[in-house]
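Protein record
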Amino acid sequence: MRSDAEFEVPPASVCTRCGSSICDGCYAPAASLPKSVIAWEAPGPLSARLWSTARASALVPELVFGKLRDGPVLAACSFALVVELCALGSLALVGLAFGFLVAPDVAGAVVTTVASNGPLACAVVAAVPVLAAVMVGLHAFWGITLELGAKLAGADWRFARGLRFAFYSCGWDLLTSPAGLVFGCVSGGASRAWRDTMSAARVPRTAMDAYLLLSRELSPARVIRARRLAVLITAGPVSFAILAMVWLTVATILPG
């Protein structure tokens, strides 16, 4: 038996026409799925809860997001912050290592300049936490717009639940980061780590559909409408925020 079999479960039901778990032919009420257990909100070691929740968010979105209910928003927010700090911190380390590998003289000069300038050094150290907070904010905005789309499509307003969806979706960022790849290789081998990364890259639409269809109990037609509305509302502000993040990163690394 494969070591990751507990996560590789089939959907609760599939359509005999298209093989999808989210369509008119395979709609199943939320009550028909087993109750979701979010490891982050249960007792246990921090690293185990973090990794289990991140993997589950990508590999079993029907259970994590389809069974999501109202609950502690601060706990979900703390998960998002820890995840983004790990993901962005690992990206910064990989970028620094790549710089020394490709252009060691330039990288060394940059490090020396930063280390000799107190305010600049503080700005560089603060860059990862600031960017992590920005990423969490972007996820939160996405969750709010998804709830707004659901509201416009006929559902009742569940602000806290939308935020919980957004914060736990940050788990995908960990799986697709260097930290996620390293953690995955250590815990289950390179092959499983790569499969987890690919699952995280493909899961957003499936997770949205599971949330809207099963947790928010919208009809398949209303799911499509809510998703489209959320995308339209999100596109402009998110594009602006991404450009601002790129500018902040470049300005921090190349202050001159």
Observations:
- The CA atoms of residues 209 and 224 lie 8 Å apart.
- The chain has one domain: 47-253.
- The two ends are 57 Å apart (CA to CA).
